[in-house]
Input
Amino acid sequence: MAQAAEAGRKRFIDDLPRIYGLYTGGFIVFILLMALLERFGVSAQAIGLMFVGFTIVIYAVIGWLSRTMEVDAYYVAGREVPALFNGMATAADWMSGASFVAMAGGIYFGGHPYLAFVVGWTGGYVLVSSLLAPYLRKFGCYTVPDFIGTRYGGNLARFCAVVVLVVASFTYVTAQINATGTIASRALGIPFEYGIWFGLLGILLCSMLGGMRGVTWTQVAQYIVLIIAYIVPVIWMSNKQGFGIIPHFSYGEAVQKIQVLEQAAQVGALKPTATDLPTGVRALTTLHNSPGGFFEGWRFVALAICMMLGTASLPHILMRYFTTPSVKAARRSVAWSLFFIFLLYFTAPALATLTKLQLFDPELATSVIGKSIADVQALPWVQQWSAVNFLRVIDSNADGILQVNEFFMRPDIVVLATPEIAGLPYVISGLVAAGGMAAAMSTADGLLLAIANALSHDLYYKIIDPRADTRVRLIVARALLIIIGAAGAAVASLRLTGILGAVAWAFCFANSGLFFPLVLGVWWKRANRAGAIAGMVVGFAVGTAYLYYTYTTGHALWGIDHLRFGIFGMAASLIAMVVVSVMTPAPDEETQKMVDEVRVPTGRTILAASH
Amino acid sequence: MADDIERARQSHWSKTFWLTIVVLLIWFVFSIVLHWMATDLNGYTFLGFPLGYYMAAQGALIVFVVTIFVQNLIQDRIDAAYERETGQTEIVG
Output
């Protein structure tokens, strides 16, 4: 019986390329079918609904098929995920609603300084690959606090790691549930408050029954949807503008052209004067490419550092590398992760640039800046997005011509509205909505699972009731998943911060509390329990205190604002950890041996297969 | 025998350590140094892009991807040498 099941799993793993190949083919057929229906006059609303509905049903089916009652499958997907597929799953886990929906818009409005996110969210993987992933895989832990708890010993260290993990991941997950709610409400035509709970339902369907195994196989499916949805409109638009099939290597001229057009349109010189605008809409006031001097350079670098070191401390990413069959596969899958992430991130600046050209270049039929106000207001996409308060055209100086400081939009719509701006068929907009949904759902799933697993494995099983049997542990894990998901949705419905602010905070919380205890745990044998606890507590406390200070007073020491508070948190964490470690006795022989053992790729894992 | 394993371990770790240092140096240059001097780099053009913009939008990213894959290949060799010297194989569990 067990052997038959074993053979079945093996076949399934070997069959993955065929299964996901068929799935990708099926999805493309579905897109073509939708395009055909659009030709036959099916409404835009119905197409959007079918895109989002169809993809969510697929994810739910995968979640159902992956259901399990085994601890190993629930926490680490049975440690059998091949490197390439784990790379795709990590990429979906990683690229959130913020990456998909907000990033290109951020580059459109923020120009060069915003590219710090692009650099930070890719460069971090060099750190994951060199400093952490292979060693954590060798360790054989189920969760990130599992590593801290075993390396440093004692429940207090484990507990501190759980607290940092929960705060960072919860901050992040509310932003993702918010994004699923926004997209679901627009695609299904229901109020935002219901959209949130609908989104949560979809998220839980993927993760509850199958745990890490279910999340892994849905995330691979979600990656395929989101990358197709992101790249197709860009390629289409680039063809229309004459930048070739792959615009990435040829849009340099567009960047230079924009610099000329921006000067002509007086971007930055013309300040918006309109009042009484809907929340979130902005006029363009920052130049596309003006990096500034030493101080702006420092701000860029500080943000990039926070995002990179945050990448290397976020538990929902690190735990994906526990699911590979070997140390080598863990390392290889970091490389694949970065490659799959890179495909989207090097497209985002191209998208921002081409969209800006669409709006500014007077030679293009789609341009709006410099056109007559009446003509622009008659454009269908301007009317549609104005109707939902995402866009405003206001003739502040009453000259009948649209200037750059009279055109207001929300950054999010750069991705969502680009197909319409460029005059692409509606089926592309439906595809983009499905992609945004996939991005937000996959990240929310990973985060919810990271929180629920840390609470069920580290807090409940390791600290509260070490004798709990498997069945109880897995039931507790699932109950926590629902409770945390509901709490996340409840907080998200309050709409406290923007999506991007919350994401940057999550990275800063994670790097303030966890980066040095994790890295030094592998790379510095002398690091001991007292040092690690000091590093976590002091780093997290200093970071949070500075966040409170800068957020409430608006003062930013040396340009370190609330998006970058991890700089102070990490510095405090490093100093506290090193000073306290050196002042207290070195860890015992057994711990030092354990560190030696972690550093070699062979032999047994530190923690037993089922623990 | 135990001495051989100890020696293999030390050589494996020192090679791994230096590989990591080199990778981190590349990382430091392409994630930090170049962007701090983006305005100066914008004086040059690459593939039609101002170089400072190119580095942040694409160049650094490509360097990161290539670095990780090359690091993978070199580390595979270091690990293979260790496995040959000690007779141990990939991890279990």
